[in-house]
Amino acid sequence: MIKHMKNKLMIACLCTVFFIAGLMYFDPGRKKTIRVGFYVGSSWNVPEGNSYHIIQEIIKKYEQKYPHVKVSYEGGITKSDYSRWLSEKIISGYSPDVFIIPEGDFNLLSSTKALENLDNYLKTDYGINRRNYFDTSWESGTYDSIQYALPFESNPVMMCVNKDLLKKENIQISSSWNMDDFYKICQKMTKDTNNDGIIDQYGLCGYSWQQAVSAYGAELFDSGGTQAFFNSQKVKYALTMYSKIKSLSKQYNVTSDDFDKGHVAFMPMSLAEYRTYKPYPYRVSKYSKFSWDCIPMPSNNHNKGLLKTSLVAISSNSSYKKEAWEFLKLMSSDNDIQQNLFETSQGVSVLKSVMNSPQTKSFLKRSAFEEKSLDIKTINTIMNNTKNEPKFKKYDELMRKADYYITKSLDDNSLELELSEIQRIITNNL
């Protein structure tokens, strides 16, 4: 009898515990918590003053709109450690619900289904419209025709120009300059200025063969990563021109240090670098010995350069995907958030409305740039003439391999002989 009563009492206690736990779990007033993954510092490897400002603003606005949801994050993760940190979280099953995608990891994370497919959200949520975005920025989050991420911030590449050197040589650059113009100017700029038999003024530094390929509108792979085109006519033209420009400096390796000293006419520079080093205070410690500015890259087609875009995504294993989607949407599509991001960071907003707003126009006017070339029109022209790298799983691996073989063949002056072999090697590794 006593034993029977003890069993009934134990069952009653267990039922009470489960009932209370159930009330706590299903209580609509109980706060949910979504975790956000991001790193401190700039996405573009330039100095940044307040890394937490924008994420804290987003969290504050989100929690005000959704008081039943709390947002948490782990601070102090550097960009260099972030990819490893996120990988460990994903493998252990504790991935953040929303996170910035590490640079270079988008293809892998998309192909392994670590990211939530956003297509259904986009079809049913009329609060976000891809037409509000720059095309290339939006497409950076697409993999195999599926939208796996939304763009957060973009960073195009421009050509930095030493205006003093060009003025000294009486050279003017057309806004629609092409690769032939580019070569002729570099050729004219490369010279021995003091007649000691040594070249001491150069046309270019920091320009890559990949940028030359982009300038000719050549494609190295098809969109699905099933074919390679390293032996195509356009790629041959691009690499031949790159080799010609590179050979102007003979055997000397022209570096950014030479540009800093005022000895080089051109150097590719991201917009983030321009916005960092053009105004005070960084201007006094870098590129301060000559007058300089940035213009669109030379090109034989309308796509003048590759665009880098930081992306945000939802974990496919998130328990709060609806809440995560609202946070993701706020980061990417909210005009106030994107306006603040543009003004406090160094890249470009992914929203056309922000980059054409009166606030942006006013901000650029008061940003202490010596010249006024960085205006709304210039930025929009650059952003509308960019392209993305192909999106397939082995792209980064194959490009590292291609870079090794092409750089070696250029150094050995054997590109024409080896390009077919490079094509064969890359094709066999697809």
How would you characterize this protein structure?
- Helix 2 packs antiparallel against helix 14 (335-344), helix 9 (209-215) crosses helix 10 (233-247) and helix 18 (395-411) packs antiparallel against helix 19.
- The chain has two domains: 30-152 and 307-382, Periplasmic binding protein-like II (D-Maltodextrin-Binding Protein, domain 2); 155-304 and 386-426, Periplasmic binding protein-like II (D-Maltodextrin-Binding Protein, domain 2), CATH 3.40.190.
- The strands form two sheets. Strands 1, 2, 3, 6, 7, 8, 9, 10, 11 and 12 form a ten-stranded mixed β-sheet that branches.
- By secondary structure, the chain is of the alpha/beta class.
- Mean pLDDT is 89; it is low at 20-26 and 280-285.
- Helix 2 (53-65) links the parallel strand 1 (32-37) and strand 2.
- It is globular and about 80 Å long.
- It contains 19 helices and twelve strands.
Number of helices: 19
CATH level 3 topology of the largest domain? D-Maltodextrin-Binding Protein, domain 2
Query: Mind summarizing the main beta sheet?
Result: 10 strands, mixed
The geometry reads as globular
Share of residues in strands? 5-15%
Mean pLDDT: 89
- The secondary structure category is alpha/beta
In the CATH hierarchy, what is the superfamily of the largest domain? Periplasmic binding protein-like II
Counting DSSP E segments of at least 2 residues, the number of strands comes to 12
The CATH architecture designation of the largest domain is 3-Layer(aba) Sandwich
Alpha-carbon Rg, integer: 26 Å
**CATH class category name of the largest domain:** Alpha Beta
First-to-last CA distance: 75 Å
Uncertain stretches of 5 or more adjacent residues? 20-26, 280-285
InterPro entries: Bact_solute-bd_prot1, SBP
Protein name: Extracellular solute-binding protein
Pfam families: SBP_bac_1 (PF01547)
Keywords: Cell membrane, Lipoprotein, Membrane, Palmitate, Signal
